[in-house]
Specification:
Blueprint: H1 2-7, H2 18-28, H3 37-40, H4 43-48, E1 66-72, H5 79-89, E2 94-97, H6 99-104, H7 106-114, E3 118-121, H8 128-131, H9 135-153, E4 159-160, H10 172-180, E5 184-185, E6 190-191, H11 202-210, E7 217-223, H12 229-244, E8 248-249, H13 274-291, H14 300-303, E9 313-317, E10 320-324, E11 330-332, E12 336-340, H15 341-347, E13 351-355, E14 360-365, E15 368-373, E16 378-383, E17 386-392, E18 397-399, E19 402-406, H16 407-416, H17 424-427, H18 433-441
Parallel strand pairs: 1-2, 1-7, 1-8, 2-3, 4-5, 6-7
Antiparallel strand pairs: 9-10, 11-12, 12-19, 13-14, 14-15, 15-16, 16-17, 18-19
Helix pairs in contact: 5-12, 10-13, 11-12
The chain binds zinc ion (ZN).
Zinc ion binds next to loops.
């Protein structure tokens, strides 16, 4: 691969970046002629409308069909029996524990971790009414549980399962806040039905699991909380059933593609105001920075081809050609090429500044100004001081104090909206073959 890169003939890339795109927009498209609903709607409004907005992350697809067994509501006095079975079968699973149970069974939590299973956060007291009355309360319980897990077992878990699952409990704000703070939410695609009522018969649990559709990756919901004796009894048969079907078993990690339910009409009444949204988002983002050495704990970076083996990216910006050495651009999952905004803007003769107080990036280019509000992920475009349009810019990334923009996503998004029909040719993006190969591989 290294040689391929070295030998790869660098072709000049026909490319164009958002900034020029904006100019094309201003010059070619009459103001108001665009109905770019999604891209122009602020994040807050999109969330109000129920749209889930998550950071793009990359996940590993296991080679073999895989079952993620998950046990909720423990640890309880039944948990050691579950651990014995797992040990005997030589498999690992995931335990979504409640903080108040950890507090009274610390040794069991330690045993779970010592035996190589994954721990997830399942809130402190599992009380739906408290948890879903408002996010602030939910968040308090997540932190409390995280703290006790860390104190007892020395691990901090970014895995989270909503009591009762997310459907009808989580709105788009819950998803968004937790995602911004660096958590991943795991629902399931097989419900063993073991919590449908008290003492579900063992046979019923087994037949529910065996009657569920199979997929390459299966997240199975079971319970090891108090009162779930029959789940423990059903477990060996369930394990053998999947083993006979050729499945492997694995604990959930942050690289596991999360099974998540769609946002549905809530069972609960709660309201979110724009002001509290801004405040809460600030809390979550600060949390991410404070608690994750890499605020975007995505596996992508590991997959990024080693910088020295990549060719330079060659861009045509208007009449000017810009050669971007490998260290200057980012190549990550989801066909994602990110470029430093400052380099692009400055190469065009524009200026870019950081407004610390307002947490905004401010771009000047001739009569054109663009503000990018990093809290709301919203870009606002001004021409001769007059506001023209607002866009949501998602998936922006910071590295070493520079802001990186996924340009293909933005270009595609704008093109889809028909904004640039007349500038289509200029917006065409092609990259050097070697980079293209990497994009496909990821
Ligand atoms: Zn539960």
């Amino acid at each position: 691969m290294r040689n391929n890169y070295k030998n790869a003939k660098r072709i000049v890339t026909r490319s164009m970046f958002l900034f020029l795109a904006i100019i094309v927009f201003v010059v070619i498209v009459p103001v108001g002629a665009v109905s770019a609903k999604d891209s122009s709607t602020p994040v807050y409004d999109q969330l109000v409308s129920g749209k889930k907005i998550m950071q793009s992350r990359s996940y590993d697809k296991p080679e073999k069909p895989t079952v993620y067994l998950t046990f909720d509501d423990g640890p309880s006095d039944l948990t050691p029996e579950v651990l014995d079975i797992l040990k005997r079968e030589g498999i690992r699973a995931t335990f979504f524990v409640c903080g108040n149970q950890v507090a009274i069974r610390k040794d069991i939590l330690k045993r779970i971790v010592d035996e190589g299973h994954a721990i997830g956060n399942h809130t402190y007291n599992h009380e739906y009414k408290d948890l879903y009355s408002d996010f602030d309360h939910f968040w308090g319980q997540i932190q409390k549980t995280e703290k006790i897990i860390q104190e007892v077992a020395g691990v901090r878990t970014p895995l989270l399962r909503a009591p009762g699952g997310t459907a009808t409990n989580f709105d788009a704000f819950y998803f968004y806040y937790l995602d911004q703070a660096g958590y991943t939410i795991y629902d399931w695609n097989i419900d063993s039905g073991d919590s449908r009522k008290l003492n579900v018969p063992t046979k019923e649990i087994i037949s529910t699991v065996e009657g569920s559709p199979l997929r390459h990756e299966l997240t199975v919901l079971m319970h090891d909380g108090t009162g779930h004796k029959t789940s423990v009894e059903a477990l060996p048969t369930i394990i053998h059933y999947f083993k006979n079907k050729g499945y492997s078993f694995a604990p959930i990690t942050t690289k596991t593609n999360p099974e998540q339910f769609a946002v549905k009409k809530l069972k609960w009444t709660r309201s979110v105001k724009d002001a509290s949204f801004t405040k809460q988002l600030g809390v979550m983002q600060k949390y991410a920075v404070d608690h994750n050495p890499n605020p975007k704990p995505v596996a992508v970076k590991e997959k990024e081809p080693a910088v020295e083996t990549r060719p330079s990216l060659e861009l045509d910006i208007g009449k000017q050609q810009l050669i971007m050495p490998p260290v200057q651009y980012m190549l990550s999952g989801n066909n994602n090429l990110k470029v430093p905004l400052r380099t692009i803007v400055e190469s065009m003769g524009g200026t870019i500044k950081w407004d610390e107080v307002k947490q905004k990036v401010v771009i000047h280019y001739g009569a054109l100004n663009v503000d990018y509000d990093t809290v709301h992920h919203k870009a606002t475009i001004y021409y001769m001081g007059k506001q023209l349009k607002s866009y949501a810019w998602m998936d922006i990334e910071w590295r070493d104090g520079s802001i990186y923009v996924p340009w293909q996503v933005i270009v595609e998004q704008l093109r889809q909206k028909g904004v640039f029909s007349s500038g289509e040719k200029m917006l065409k993006l092609t990259v050097t073959p070697a980079i293209h190969a990497e994009l496909l591989k990821i």
